[in-house]
Amino acid sequence: MKSLITTSKVLLIMLTIFSSAKGNVIARIVKSEGDVFMKRLGMSTYSEKVKTGAAITNGDAIKVGAESFAAIIYIDDRSVIKIKENSKFSFMDSKNTRTVDLVYGTLLNNIKSEGRKKAFRIQTPVSVASIKGTEFAAIVSQKGLEEFVCKEGNFEVLNMISGQTVSVSAGQKAFSNATGDLVQAIASPKDYPTDPEIENELDDIENLINNEEINEPSEKQKTNNTPKLEQKSEDNSVEIEKNEQEPKQGLESEAEESLETKKSIEQIKSEPPPKPFSMGLGIGSATIDGILYNQIALRPEVYIKKVGIGLDLVLYVDNEGNIKTEQWDIDNDPGLLLDKILYIKYGRENDLLWAKYGSLESITFGYGGLLNNYSNMLEFPTVRKVGFITGINVGPVSSQFFLANFKDLSRGGTISGIRLDYTISENFPLSFGINYIVDGNMFSGLKDRDEDSFPDVFDDFPDSTNMWNDSDGDGIPDPHFSLDSSRWDIDADGDNVVDYLQDSVTLKATPFSLKNNSASTSGLSFDIGYPIFNSKAFNLKLYTEYNRLNYPGVINDDSTFIRTQRSGSGITIPGIRSLIFGVLNISLEYRIINGSYIPQFFDQAYDLNRVISSTVDGQTIIQTKDMAVFENYNDDLNSSGLYGSAGLDLLNLITFSASYSNMKSDTTELKSFTSYFNLNTENIPKISSAMAYYQRNNDDNPFDFENPTKNTIMGYRIGYELSKGVSLIWDFRQFYRDDGTGTLEAIQQTTIETSFNF
Q1: pLDDT tens column, 500-520
Q2: 8 A C-beta contact, residue 460 and residue 434
Q3: For a designed S-S bond to 135, which of 151, 354, 424, 683 qualifies (C-beta 3.0 to 4.6 A apart)?
Q4: Which domains does the chain have, with CATH numbers?
């Protein structure tokens, strides 16, 4: 592990150094006392005696000896770092990130938040401290113990061995070591090292920097390769190197600027770098298709520069020791290889180009009127889907495109969408967006392994082409025309009476057939948003959104599936979103709906309710989501109502969010409710994770918890730490569907595993 971390640091140094313009002056020496030496980029030894005023360029390293001291100031934001005796570190600047690599010693850091355009990090042998703006000390002993003490502000510390992260505020400290331990504690005043005064020297250097900026050479002079100039001040013996150049500005730089209408890029930049390698080992149980299996899983994750790869290598063994081999029958189904890839991703969402293949989580376009919090992982691991999402950011323009599941393409189509976003400028951040979402075939998610046209979800014999129903669940098929009568179940209803001796027998209805059946849905939306107020304590955004959904009419040859052509639209006017004191998110919308429009149609539960089954007169009836919602209503339905949501981050301990809508018309009332709860377990002994969720949309009474409907999904995940790096994970989710007899059946997916993280 240590070697991997060392390798990653070398790669990081190389990447950051060569991604910046070579020779750019990033800082200057404010004060130098005693043995202070510098190793320039490309040099092998600390051979240059450091003088006050000396220029520091990207990739340089400084070594401070015993009874010595130095201080530096960054030119752009005037952040100051004081270096105590017996310290060694280097500078690594990239376009978006400023990193100080502390090998050993003590750094006193006064990092400015105002005027700073780069994320700031202190990197040590085993830790990364991510800073937004604070005054703190970083101490690395030559025995390997690392200590971070916060004097003012706050920052986060990541231990790269264990992956643990803690938040450190004023009056607190954190200890980190090479065994993966990361502990937060209360700091006393004596824990903060002695802070030498440098005010006089600092004023002199700031004056010098200001004069340099005034006399900055013209762009023409720079392009003519003006040679370095050295000027000595007789009073202070200041050595000046006139070689500063402004960072290159271009499309990529503009693309990465933070705009109010986009995801907080500064937040993304401040995230700690992922570990170069980790390995998860899971041992436990999982319920798949109602059968309990023992589970053994290996989940390696590798990061190389901007590329991350995660695999999910799982074996399922039943209670008789038989391995579930169909998931590894790659010779007959090469597509199973796709199931082993949990994800492959490149870059971050603020990069010029980013992409992810595999698992997709929480996709929202615009303000969520069409696509809101969609995920292709809701049925995982029972159903494994492989999707793709990518984005491009060029100046004020950004775009996203996604495919929900490549496997569905061979079944008639999948869910896909595209978004384009344009923001006028930072000074006038009015944003415009357009979204287009389409489900090419809503039936494509119904898998049919034996290709008998009856989806596996309804087929009691998913591996047999001439058997599909087993009403009493005894493993013997119900009577039907394609099966030899000698193989029929003579007591198909399971009442211990031979069927031919009874006047009537109630059996499962014939399942829905995929033969000649398909149905599509498409949606188009436009949105406009403008932040009318923005401060650290409070911000307010006003927006409007227009959405339209179309459901083409369908009638197949045998008339077993009929869908009437429908369409509808909805407008949000106005919509308001606000963030209060950085902890409370509030949104409120007034919605007006015309026709068969369903707000947030492509939501978290879409894969579960895009197709819904019911039993009518002994026949399995399939309805698409729109048919189920508007079954008893005409296409001229008009309604209006309020939608509201709130999210609370309480002291970084509890995250809770909930939303509710109530749409009313003359003839109907549809209500929706969703909620999410997450507990930050960093400071809770033995609890490694704790979260829960509940969703019930387009229902008469979403708060009738005792009587769930097909629109209900719920779940939770709890982790208990058995020892360092070892946790017992309980993952549970539940939803509902017709069992083929008209009875609503609870589908439960439970995974219990012991997780080992290396």
Answers
A1: 777 777 777 777 777 777 889
A2: no
A3: 151
A4: 2-24+92-241 (2.60.120.1440), 278-443+517-757 (2.40.160)
